[in-house]
From TrEMBL:
Residues 25-52 form a coiled coil. It holds the Pfam family DUF948. This is DUF948 domain-containing protein. Residues 113-133 are annotated as: Disordered. The keyword Iron-sulfur does not apply. Keywords: Coiled coil. Residues 117-133 have a biased composition (Polar residues).
């Protein structure tokens, strides 16, 4: 009888074990079904995103090709600008050299004229206020033209020549 009772107890324990094992397997099957559905949704999303990414890459490639084409068209313009900069630098250097030469020439003429005026032009100071005013007027306006002090006219001429060369 102990054997029969032991066998019955083992049978009941086995039945309980099988019952709980079936419940666990059904819960695992439900979880696996959920995982399978989630993976299918993820796969769908990845496929949609993959298409959009491919479209974006194609669009970026088109933009890159367009930019490269436009850069190739702009290259001659940039080279011309570089050459123009070099030419303007050379013209500026030449203008600076001409200007300094002219200024040196005018300054030497002015110094010579001042020396000549000082050595040959000794006068007594005027006695009246009117004579002093007339003498200062003559010194201011007439000596400029005679002594070579009218260098502003030469600067205007040089500026006009420069503008004509630029055009």
């Amino acid at each position: 009888m102990i054997y029969q009772l032991s066998v019955a107890l083992i049978a009941v324990a086995f039945a309980v074990l099988v019952f709980f094992l079936i419940r666990t397997l059904k819960a695992a099957q439900g979880s696996l079904d959920n995982v399978s559905r989630t993976l299918q949704e993820v796969q769908k999303t990845v496929d949609e995103l993959s298409y959009e990414v491919k479209q974006t890459v194609r669009h970026a490639n088109d933009i890159t090709a367009d930019v490269q084409h436009k850069i190739k068209k702009i290259d001659p313009v940039l080279e011309s600008v570089e050459n123009l900069g070099e030419v303007l630098s050379e013209v500026t250097a030449a203008a600076k050299q001409v200007s300094s030469t002219l200024m040196t020439k005018f300054q030497t003429k002015r110094a010579e004229a001042d020396k000549a005026a000082q050595s040959s032009h000794v006068t007594a100071p005027p006695a009246t206020q009117t004579e002093r005013t007339l003498q200062s007027y003559d010194a201011t306006y007439h000596d400029e033209v005679k002594g070579g002090k009218n260098w502003m006219g030469y600067v205007d001429i040089a500026a006009n020549v420069w503008q004509r060369l630029r055009k």
